[in-house]
C-alpha cells in the first residue's frame, strides 16, 4: 500500500540573528527548535519569535530545509 501524505509535518526553526552575527564573530552555536506545522493551512515558510540562549533574547526563528 502507498503511504499517504500527512498534512502535518515536522519543521526545524533556526535563529536568524545568530546566522548573521556568526560570520563576524565566533559564536558558541546556533539556536534551533523542532516543531510541527499544518502544510495545508500554512504553505509558506514559518517564522516565530522564540528565545535564543546564545543571543540571550527573543529573536525571529525561521524555517529551514532538512
From TrEMBL:
InterPro entries according to UniProt: Ribosomal_bL33, Ribosomal_bL33_CS, Ribosomal_bL33_sf, Ribosomal_zn-bd
A cellular component term, taken from the record's GO annotations: chloroplast
Gene Ontology terms: biological process: translation
Coiled-coil segments on the chain, per record: none
Record's subcellular location: Plastid, Chloroplast
Keyword Plastid: yes
Gene3D superfamilies xref list: Ribosomal protein L33 (2.20.28.120)
MF term (GO), any: structural constituent of ribosome
Cited SUPFAM superfamilies: Zn-binding ribosomal proteins
Domain of life of the native organism: Eukaryota
HAMAP family named among the record's database cross-references: Ribosomal_bL33
NCBIfam families in UniProt: PRK00504.1, PRK00595.1, rpmG_bact
Database matches in PANTHER family: 50S RIBOSOMAL PROTEIN L33, CHLOROPLASTIC, LARGE RIBOSOMAL SUBUNIT PROTEIN BL33C
Protein name: Large ribosomal subunit protein bL33c
Organism: Lantana camara
Amino acid at each position: 500500500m502507498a503511504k499517504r501524505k500527512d498534512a502535518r509535518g515536522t519543521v526545524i526553526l533556526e535563529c536568524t540573528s545568530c546566522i548573521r552575527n556568526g560570520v563576524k564573530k565566533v559564536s558558541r552555536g546556533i539556536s534551533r527548535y523542532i516543531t510541527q506545522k499544518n502544510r495545508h493551512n500554512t504553505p509558506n515558510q514559518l517564522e516565530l519569535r522564540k528565545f535564543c540562549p546564545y543571543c540571550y533574547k527573543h529573536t525571529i526563528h525561521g524555517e529551514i530545509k532538512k
